[in-house]
Amino acid sequence: MPVRVFLVDDQALVRSGFRMLIEAEDDLVVVGEAADGQAAVQALAKVSADVVLMDIRMPVVDGVEATQRLTAAGHPARVLVLTTFDLDEYVFAALKAGASGFLLKDARPAELLSAIRDVAAGDAVVAPSATRRLLAQVVPTLPGRPTEHTPDPRLALLTARELDVLVEIAAGASNSEIGSRLYLAEGTVKTHIGRLLAKLEIRDRVGLVLFAYETGVAPR
């Protein structure tokens, strides 16, 4: 079954360009589109989608608010945020609201298609350098560390190797960098990440980063 993509952008020409690019691929299909976040949330209540390509700055309801509403409603679609500005305050807010990653609007077509497939597969599209800058913004706002007497019980579910991988993810390492540092094949790294997501009941890589800092697994 092809990956179902829903387009949200206030510019009809941009939506048309994305539609042409996506529908030229055998494994991708556009199932709908909207010109603002409110219309998108309303449409997605009736339309099944795997990935929402979400513009960040729109009239009526912006991409951040729309992402929050979809997440709160438990919609299964993963949100890939599109922005003109690299990691502006809206992008941070969207990632914290539940978006699975972001991409600049001037990304190459191949990068966009790859990002859609990665997000649909459960990966987060946030470059390591961007993760580090994200942490610089987000970590100071996190609640205080848990005390030694109240550790998160989910930590007990993890193996030593899974904890190693979690620490590397929190540091902003890519899968290939994690494999190199821990002497693991990249496929094995992906397996560990999948187990981390399942055991911790976390949606994506961004959530793993925040979990690592909130629980004290990663140093601040």
Automatic annotation (TrEMBL):
<dbReference type="Pfam" id="PF00072">
    <property type="entry name" value="Response_reg"/>
</dbReference>
<keyword id="KW-0804">Transcription</keyword>
<keyword id="KW-0238">DNA-binding</keyword>
<keyword id="KW-0597">Phosphoprotein</keyword>
<protein>
    <submittedName>
        <fullName>DNA-binding response regulator, NarL/FixJ family, contains REC and HTH domains</fullName>
    </submittedName>
</protein>
<feature type="domain" description="HTH luxR-type">
    <location>
        <begin position="151"/>
        <end position="216"/>
    </location>
</feature>
<dbReference type="InterPro" id="IPR016032">
    <property type="entry name" value="Sig_transdc_resp-reg_C-effctor"/>
</dbReference>
<dbReference type="Pfam" id="PF00196">
    <property type="entry name" value="GerE"/>
</dbReference>
<dbReference type="GO" id="GO:0006355">
    <property type="term" value="P:regulation of DNA-templated transcription"/>
</dbReference>
<keyword id="KW-0805">Transcription regulation</keyword>
<dbReference type="InterPro" id="IPR000792">
    <property type="entry name" value="Tscrpt_reg_LuxR_C"/>
</dbReference>
<dbReference type="InterPro" id="IPR039420">
    <property type="entry name" value="WalR-like"/>
</dbReference>
<dbReference type="InterPro" id="IPR001789">
    <property type="entry name" value="Sig_transdc_resp-reg_receiver"/>
</dbReference>
<dbReference type="GO" id="GO:0000160">
    <property type="term" value="P:phosphorelay signal transduction system"/>
</dbReference>
<dbReference type="GO" id="GO:0003677">
    <property type="term" value="F:DNA binding"/>
</dbReference>
<dbReference type="InterPro" id="IPR011006">
    <property type="entry name" value="CheY-like_superfamily"/>
</dbReference>
<feature type="domain" description="Response regulatory">
    <location>
        <begin position="4"/>
        <end position="120"/>
    </location>
</feature>
<dbReference type="InterPro" id="IPR058245">
    <property type="entry name" value="NreC/VraR/RcsB-like_REC"/>
</dbReference>
<feature type="modified residue" description="4-aspartylphosphate">
    <location>
        <position position="55"/>
    </location>
</feature>
